[in-house]
Design goal:
Distance between the termini: 60 Å
Number of strands: 2
Helix content: 55-70%
Largest sheet: 2 strands, antiparallel
Strand order of the largest sheet: 1-2
Oligomer: single chain
Shape: globular
């Protein structure tokens, strides 16, 4: 590839990594508080649906983004109540939510529009070049010529890193994920902390869904998240439950997906279905190599039994 092609490839990698990053940051909050984020896929799909349909009906992208976050948070609340309040199994609850949201969004997509899924066509969020910085050779096109939600995802990575490391609330959230009994003794309510973390994570995942429907493709289709939630979980593990390493994990998978799109245009004698498997195969390989030594938050998946 020549220089221009490399710059475009790197810029595309960041764009593709953006929805992964929103979801991964949401899942990171949930897991650092002690709840497996298996349901992040469903929360992301709920956000994609809510944002697309609301924008279609109101012609207001801002309202669509707000509904995306709210839809993801509502899906997160289902998981929060089931796991933190009623101590249901985290894995089963997350998988059940994923299946529920796939069916519910398909049903509502048809039910809201007279029994037939509409052809949704929405204007996508365009790139917002940052003055002067966007004109820098190479790096300007890659980092400073991106849509608004990409900048927001990068800023959130910094914000969540500071939140977890430097604020009392963030330290308490981490304590609940490591030792909820000690956090309870220190005056915190682990159940409430876990519920808040899951709902906040759901809102971020919902915004990740909005990136798909409102920034990348400008539509909504059944099951359009297409397994991205599980790639986000892989990015969290690769990133050792820390925001900036998780960002690098998302960029890695975004780069693989961007390369997959390029390879499809090379007319290779390989089935397109095999090429589309590449990001998921990469996730498996990376997890097998890097993820084996990852240390989970000590209390993740456990129920807090004291009232």
């Amino acid at each position: 590839m020549d220089g221009a092609a490399i710059v475009e490839f790197l810029a595309a990698s960041i764009r593709i990594a953006t929805p992964l990053l929103f979801g991964a940051l949401g899942g990171l909050l949930s897991e650092r508080a002690g709840t497996f984020a298996v349901g992040i896929e469903g929360m992301m799909l709920a956000g994609a649906f809510g944002g697309a349909v609301t924008t279609l009906l109101t012609a207001d992208t801002g309202i669509g983004l707000a509904v995306s976050a709210g839809s993801g948070a509502a899906a997160g609340l289902v998981v929060a109540v089931a796991t933190a309040k009623f101590r249901a199994d985290h894995m089963v609850t997350g998988l059940a939510l994923n299946i529920l949201v796939v069916g519910l969004t398909s049903f509502l997509l048809r039910g809201l529009f007279g029994g037939q899924a509409p052809v949704i066509q929405l204007p996508t969020l365009k790139a917002l070049p940052i003055p002067y910085l966007a004109d820098l050779p190479g790096i300007g096109r890659v980092l400073f010529h991106q849509p608004a939600l990409t900048y927001a995802a990068l800023a959130l990575t910094l914000a969540i890193s500071v939140f977890l490391a430097k604020t009392r609330t963030g330290l308490m959230l981490r304590a609940v994920g490591e030792n909820p009994e000690a956090a309870f003794t220190a005056g915190s309510n682990p159940v409430r902390v876990r519920m808040a973390a899951i709902v906040a994570g759901g809102a971020l995942a919902g915004l990740g869904g909005a990136v798909l429907s409102l920034q990348e493709v400008g539509t909504f289709t059944d099951g359009m998240t297409n397994g991205r939630g599980f790639i986000e979980l892989a990015a969290i593990i690769v990133g050792r439950w820390m925001p900036f390493p998780t960002l690098l994990g998302c960029l890695l998978f975004g780069g693989v997906a961007a390369l997959e799109l390029r390879v499809q245009g090379w007319d290779l004698p390989v089935s397109s279905y095999v090429i589309q498997m590449t990001p998921y195969l990469a996730a498996l390989v990376v997890l097998a190599g890097i993820g084996r030594g990852a240390r989970l938050p000590a209390a993740i998946g456990t129920a807090f039994t004291r009232n």
